[in-house]
């Protein structure tokens, strides 16, 4: 019987010297080129976005900062230091504009911050038809702002407006909604709330649907009612979203312009709806004083930036 050959011995196969494989260590053909093209494309899109943001956001901020310390006479630009700020400060409309803006912000927080959250709570309780309700709530946001404001101007009309028609059913005299200094600002806030509450409602609704149901079940076992569940479960679980929306709404309401401009002509009866942004508009396009407009805009920018930084710091300290 002949001895097994090398090719017939299975163990001999394992003892054969193996050639080291270099394919795994070698990068795939064209891999470096693909990575380079991918990075160049990504940076290309990024550079485009940065350039657009710089042109439409950073450049106006820098330009405003320069205009605040300049004055233009017959095409000649000169540096005037703090003269524009002194002009704005001594304007009698300066204090009234800030008071009206702060009053609008307070009213907008009472209505525009609470109403969307309550609406989201109600929609969240529905088991069916939530898609239709979300569309119904968000529909005013999809309308052009000018169309929405003109709709409310028609509703506020003292002669044939729907609001006065409703009051007449209950025997209440007709109101001069936009012509009365006592009701003009409130009327503007109601229109603004209806126009802008859709986006906030959907954000609140998404936050509510992320709250674990076990927490509500535990609260029910403890005998908590609806209000206690909202106070002890819903609000703590959505605190971050509420804080962010509060900050964004304050910043947005401090820059209100479209609603009072279209509803009351900007100033309103006895200047009751003159806001800071409308005063900036007057300086720039009515008085042709771009330096004063830039100075007032810079004051508003610094105020909002300082408030945002302070609010963020206090909120972070509270979380810690």
Describe the protein.
The chain is mainly α and 320 residues long. Helices cover 70% and strands 2% of the residues. The protein is built from 14 helices and two strands, in the order H-H-E-E-H-H-H-H-H-H-H-H-H-H-H-H. It has helices at 10-15, 31-67, 83-89, 92-124, 130-142, 145-155, 162-169, 184-209, 213-221, 226-237, 239-253, 258-264, 276-286, 290-319; strands at residues 70-73, 76-79. Helix 6 (145-155) crosses helix 12. The model is unreliable at 1-7 (pLDDT under 50).
> Helix amount, in percent?
over 70%
**Total DSSP E strands:** 2
Parts with pLDDT < 50 across at least 5 consecutive residues: 1-7
Q: Rounded to an integer, what's the Rg over CA atoms?
A: 32 Å
Please state the overall shape, judged from the principal axes of the Cα atoms: globular
Question: What strand line-up does the widest sheet have?
Answer: 1-2
Strand and helix order: HHEEHHHHHHHHHHHH
Percent strand = under 5%
Give the N-to-C terminal Cα separation: 86 Å
